[in-house]
């Protein structure tokens, strides 16, 4: 049976009118939330008063859509096309038999009518259904630190930090090179293979040093004991795949590490520094330049390349793409969505800033916009502009940003700001500019026995089935750092997370 106009209660009409009334004078999110709650409860009350909808699961008129879990997001962006072309009262005239399914559809349409400017999507805190340790992602010939990945064609491309070979007993030895890269495959069943390969045995840094970066050795070590640590904090950002030609970018701060404490020796057991050979006794990861310039590197690769061991060609676009004392946009994380690249930067003051640029214009700084004081601007903000900070956009440590098509949410997964444990945190948002949820610890992995036992917590959306984020899963990894034969042994445990 159809609903007639006289059957629509006064409460229902009032709820409809309220949903169209603009909200004035809202100064903060608490006021918005209060208004949203009032509107939701008004609609729910009216919903419960309409005939048979007042019975069964609709008996409690104070329930909101968050309790019922039957109503889509407030905006009708995801609604069927015909629903986008009708208003709420028209919809009431054309809906439903008075059955539970009709009540559900009616409630959905009621809340579709509530202004999207006054209702935000309900809080979302993912929980883990299952966590499975798949194994160690590794090249058996290389001891690799801090690896991140991105999908390139039908394979996975990895970039890592400090890398070194093993001796015949499996002990890491010199030389040390500051960065390396490799491939891994996707198995026939869609799961990731753990074997890394490629590069032809090269022991040169994948991201090349420049003459003013102590490039006479592969570690960036200088004669005064300092070292330029050209370490990627995030995997390459793939910006285009045009006629099988892949383009990707990485931003790396030119970070000088404080002097090593060195002892000269006649044995070949240390770094090459000029003409001296030295043993590393101790080191500090602090720096005299906490906000150095940031270099932009470009990678290109043809998917038609028949040499499966060949790595993408890497070149330096600009050694000082972001100047000394500036925000290192892109180094803290990056995502491409709908043709726009979003770049996160975290300078030494801990603020996390966001920039955006057309994905095809990464190298053109005139095309960049910056999120400052709640709006996009073409003016580059200063390092100490506190209005660039986006609250809760991460837990403070290293991690990975991506967009989940399954959740229709922006996601960050990573480590807390001050931690050497494999405690994984997650935060999500409907808009990349926020508001972001408070981060929560969703999984704890195994921490190594070395003083820095676990770090570089990463998510790997490119490892998902088909390289898609439309599935309710994610692969995560961290660097597990173990003391072994008087040195550090790195491993990269890969964990598959299935969400509830």
How would you describe the overall organization of this protein?
This is DUF4185 domain-containing protein. It comes from Xylaria arbuscula. The chain is 12% helix and 34% strand. It has helices at 10-20, 29-49, 65-68, 81-84, 88-94, 100-112, and strands at residues 128-136, 142-144, 148-152, 155-160, 163-165, 180-185, 227-229, 237-242, 245-253, 255-257, 261-264, 271-273, 276-282, 294-302, 313-322, 333-337, 340-345, 353-358, 369-372, 375-377, 396-404, 409-416, 423-429, 440-444, 454-459, 473-484, 487-491, 493-499. The strands form eight sheets. Strands 1, 25, 26, 27 and 28 form a five-stranded antiparallel sheet that branches. The longest helix has 21 residues, at 29-49.
Keywords:
500 residues; five-stranded antiparallel beta sheet; 6 helices; globular
Quick summary:
With 500 residues, the chain is mainly β. It contains 6 helices and 28 strands. The strands form 8 sheets. Strands 1, 25, 26, 27 and 28 form a 5-stranded antiparallel sheet that branches.
């Amino acid at each position: 049976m159809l609903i007639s106009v006289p059957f629509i209660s006064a409460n229902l009409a009032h709820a409809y009118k309220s949903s169209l009334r603009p909200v004035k004078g809202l100064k903060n999110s608490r006021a918005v939330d209060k208004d949203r709650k009032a509107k939701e409860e008004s609609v729910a009350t009216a919903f419960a008063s309409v005939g048979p909808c007042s019975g069964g699961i609709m008996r409690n008129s104070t329930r909101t859509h968050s309790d019922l879990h039957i109503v889509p997001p407030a905006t009708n962006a995801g609604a069927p096309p015909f629903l986008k072309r009708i208003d709420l009262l028209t919809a009431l005239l054309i809906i439903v038999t008075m059955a539970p399914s009709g009540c559900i559809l009616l409630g959905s349409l009621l809340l579709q009518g509530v202004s999207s400017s006054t209702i935000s999507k309900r809080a979302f805190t993912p929980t883990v259904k299952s966590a499975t340790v798949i194994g160690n992602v590794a090249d058996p010939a290389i001891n690799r630190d801090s690896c991140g990945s991105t999908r390139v064609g039908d394979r996975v491309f990895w970039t890592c930090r400090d890398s070194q070979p093993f001796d015949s007993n499996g002990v890491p030895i010199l030389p040390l090179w500051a960065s390396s890269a490799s491939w891994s495959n996707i198995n026939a069943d869609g799961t990731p293979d753990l074997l890394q390969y490629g590069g032809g045995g090269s022991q040169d840094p994948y991201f090349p040093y420049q003459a003013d970066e102590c490039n006479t050795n592969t570690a960036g070590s200088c004669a005064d004991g300092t070292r330029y640590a050209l370490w990627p904090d995030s995997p390459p950002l793939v910006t285009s795949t045009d006629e099988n030609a892949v383009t990707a970018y990485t931003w790396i701060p030119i970070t000088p590490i404080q002097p090593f404490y060195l002892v000269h020796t006649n044995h070949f057991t240390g770094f090459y520094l000029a003409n001296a050979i030295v043993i590393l006794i101790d080191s500090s990861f602090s720096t005299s330049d906490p906000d150095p310039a940031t270099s932009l590197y470009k990678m290109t690769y043809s998917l038609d390349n028949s040499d499966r061991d060949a790595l993408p060609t890497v070149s330096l676009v600009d050694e000082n793409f972001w100047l000394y004392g500036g925000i290192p946009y892109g180094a803290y994380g990056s995502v491409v969505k709908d043709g726009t690249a979003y770049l996160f930067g975290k300078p030494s003051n801990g603020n996390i800033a966001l920039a955006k640029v057309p994905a095809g214009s990464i190298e053109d700084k005139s095309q960049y916009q910056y999120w400052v004081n709640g709006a996009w601007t073409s003016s580059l903000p200063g390092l100490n502009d506190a209005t660039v900070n986006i609250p809760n956009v991460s837990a403070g440590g290293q991690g990975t940003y991506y967009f989940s098509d399954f959740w229709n949410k922006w996601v960050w997964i990573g480590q807390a700001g001050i931690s050497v444990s494999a405690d994984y945190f997650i935060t999500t948002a409907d808009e990349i500019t926020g508001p972001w949820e408070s981060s929560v610890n969703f999984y704890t992995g195994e921490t190594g026995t070395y003083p820095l036992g676990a770090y570089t917590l990463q998510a790997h959306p490119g490892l998902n089935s088909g390289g898609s984020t439309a599935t309710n899963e994610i692969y995560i990894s961290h660097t597990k750092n173990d003391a072994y034969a008087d040195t550090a042994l790195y491993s990269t445990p890969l964990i598959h997370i299935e969400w509830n």
